[in-house]
Amino acid sequence: MSAEKIVHKITNLIESPAFIKQHRHSAKDFTRSRTLSFANLIKFQLNMVRGALQDELNAFFATLEDKNDHLERRVTDSAYCQARLKLNPSVYQAINQHICDIFYAEAEFNQWHGKRLLAVDGSVMDLPDHPALWGAYGAVNSSSLHPSARLSTLYDPLNQLTVDLQIASCCIGERELARRHLSFAQPGDLVLYDRGYPAFWLFALHQKMGVDFCARTPWNLYNEIRDLFHRREKEGEFTLTPSAEAIQQCQELGLSIAPLPLRVINIDLPDSDEPELLITSLTDSETYPHEEFSALYHQRWYTEESYKTIKSRLEIENLTGYSTRAVEQDISARWVTMNLNAILIFDAEKLLQDELKAKALKNQYKVNRANSLRQTKHNIVRLLQQLNPLQLWHKLIKAMALVKEPVRTGRKYPRTFKKSGPRFAMRYKRV
């Protein structure tokens, strides 16, 4: 894959006058030469700001100018807070779209039966207790002590790439966010859903777009599958007809109300009395046999892992501002950085597996993701400076491949639910 093409594309975009005009807040923004230019703001935010803001700014400009002095103050934290108000968070969705387009065009990416595999999953993120954020995002319930934002991702679990990120108020439902995600899907894709997503109108939208789906469902959600559940049959086909409410929803969205031919898959779970029921548009049992669906649905686990990574290792709740613009910049920038890291890991994994094959080792190994994130954090600014980016990319890949960990299959841990308030207190100037 052309790593140089990805770096070149990003750097050209953030220096492009047309791109700047598209993603600045007003026509007067970024019209004068400033130390905190449009491009420098992007580079700084992609650098995963996690420490004290002034220290991070000093280190950033020292790296930018290839200096060792991290104590020199080129830009104050207050100047940064003012400059970021000029930047629309939409810039990161645009950058991410270009990254994904290049990756899927250039790389021999992992697929399932020739299909790009995607998974939709949501999460709730704690926000600082501030009136502006209460008004913009609301809270999970009336007893909440702090506001929260609803996050939803369209995630490629086989390549560990986030195709789309949606940040919304808590009053926006997960199905609506799934509908927004589908504008980033392509005909022939296969999308995985958890049990909270099944709805006739969503399935009809998939059919209209030529996008397949596989969704977990409660046994009693549709009358059509109750009999199969009680009979404990392995699988079966049925025709899903719309209810009166579903008909209205489809008409509002301009969708067909024709019955949908679907397939239900019954998977016995070893630790549960209730089986896992999957509804899918993949009705061809010869091409897509029953025994493959358990492993297929398990791929959603990687989507949940991506949330753990962004919340714990990238400290996404360690925000650098109180405004909605600051919040969305922080969140979106870190997701773009995580995608760049995923592409580095993709190349590093290939290098590692080639080396392991030559050594004929019995055990399986993979690239250590914690180490790879550290390497990305320390080098992303240098990459975007385009100072021998291809050479640096290859150095990063080799460094990541050196730090490996064994693949441990079949491990299970009980879920733990904890945390009731924000982890991070903001101790510097807010916007």
Task: Summarize this structure as a short list of keywords or feature phrases.
431 residues; alpha+beta; 2 domains; eight-stranded mixed sheet; two-stranded antiparallel sheet; 45% helix; disordered C terminus
The beta-strand count equals: 10
Q: Cα distance, first to last residue? A: 40 Å
Count of spatially separate domains = 2
Main-sheet strand order equals 3-2-1-4-5-8-7-6
Contiguous low-pLDDT stretches (5 residues minimum) are 427-431
Tertiary shape: globular
Instruction: Give the averaged pLDDT, no decimals.
Output: 89
The main sheet comes to:
8 strands, mixed
**Separate helix tally:** 16
The ordered string of helix (H) and strand (E) elements is HHHHHHEHEEHEHEHEHEEHHHEHHE
Helix content: 40-55%
| C-alpha Rg (nearest Å) | 23 Å
- Which percent band covers the strand fraction? 5-15%
Walk me through the structure:
This protein is 45% helix and 14% strand. It has an 8-stranded mixed sheet, with helices on both faces. Strands 9-10 form a two-stranded antiparallel ribbon. The protein is built from 16 helices and 10 strands. The protein has helices at residues 3-15, 17-23, 38-46, 53-64, 77-84, 90-106, 131-137, 174-181, 200-209, 223-231, 244-253, 293-298, 300-313, 324-359, 369-384, 389-402; strands at 117-126, 148-156, 161-168, 190-193, 212-216, 235-240, 260-267, 276-280, 365-367, 404-406. With 431 residues, it is α+β, with helices and mostly antiparallel strands. The protein is globular, with a radius of gyration of 23 Å. Helix 1 (3-15) packs antiparallel against helix 6 and helix 15 (369-384) packs antiparallel against helix 16 (389-402). Helix 9 (200-209) links the parallel strand 4 (190-193) and strand 5. The chain has 2 domains: 3-89 and 320-406, no CATH class; 110-305, no CATH class. Residues 427-431 have low confidence and may be disordered.
